[in-house]
Amino acid sequence: MPLAEFTVDGQQHPALLPVVAALDGLTPNTPILDLGCGTGAWLARLADAGFTDLCGTDRCADVFGAQKVARFVPGNLMDDCTFPASAFGLVTAIEVVEHVANPERIIDLASRCLAPRGWLMITTPNIYSVRVRARFLMSGKLTFFDTNAAPDHIHPLLLDAFIRHVLPRYPLELERVWSYPEKGSNGSRLSARVAARILGAIVSDPLPGDTICLLLRKH
After folding, report:
1. How many beta carbons lie within 10 A of that of residue 184, not counting itself?
2. Rounded distance, CA 178 to CA 214, Å?
3. What gap in Å lies between CA 39 and CA 166, rounded to an integer?
4. SS3 of 136, please?
5. Do residues 98 and 153 lie in contact, with contact meaning Cβ atoms separated by under 8 Å?
6. Of 165, 158, 168, which Cα lies nearest the Cα of 214?
């Protein structure tokens, strides 16, 4: 039975696999760490793609179901989660930063345990699509962080502040920013998708998807 994928539409992991497969310097035995790994569904997909040195960490050990393909290290990302320096060629945080009290803790942890020229991939709810911006303008409610969202969604990623004020403190370079789904929302109502398309013809909408994806590389 497939492991539950806690992403916006349950289909984001397959879309991320080609990105990982194309990363410079990654080989099947590159050590990979998934922060906030949940059930281990992302690690299981990486294993199916041929990666063999996989590790996940999460505070909830009882839901992890990928023991056959990845080792699990219990830990709270905010407190006791540490790993050896320069140990991993790729660190991922798939739909995690919005859940934690101090999102910069993830950047700090990843930058220390990444090897030189290693990669960091982050995904988190996208507050920059025309659809989300229009709703906030009209109602003052921020999609993915309002009363209809998961109760532990507490920190949206403020992209400009992240790039200007957070990243300069770490040996990380932002390589790419994109959104998923590529052509817009899969999960919103049809009326919202139609409105977004109409607005997109008037206002620039370079990040139309429900999730924003960041790829960074360590110096």
Report:
1. 20
2. 7
3. 29
4. helix
5. yes
6. 158
Q: Are 156 and 162 in contact (CB under 8 A)?
A: no
Supply the DSSP symbol for 172: E
Phi then psi for 104, rounded to 5 degrees? -65, -20
Angle between helices 130-139 and 190-200 (to 10 degrees): 100
Q: What is the dihedral of CA 94, 95, 100, 104, to 10 degrees?
A: 50
Q: State the Cα–Cα distance between residues 88 and 114, nearest whole angstrom.
A: 5
pTM exceeds cut of 0.90: yes
At 86, list the tokens: 């320069």
Tens-level pLDDT at each residue, the chain (219 residues): 679 888 877 789 999 999 999 999 999 999 999 999 999 999 999 999 999 999 999 998 899 999 999 999 999 888 778 899 999 999 999 999 999 999 999 999 999 999 999 999 999 999 999 989 888 888 899 999 999 888 999 999 999 999 999 999 999 999 999 999 988 776 555 556 566 666 666 788 899 999 999 999 999
Alpha helices in the chain (DSSP H): 12-21, 41-48, 104-113, 130-139, 159-161, 190-200
Cβ neighbours of 191 (radius 10 Å): 8
Give which of 98, 87, 80 is closest to 55, Cα–Cα: 87
Using alpha carbons, select from 169, 197, 171 the residue that is nearest to residue 183.
Answer: 197
Max distance between CA atoms of the chain, in angstroms, equals 50
Residue 185: what residue type?
A: S
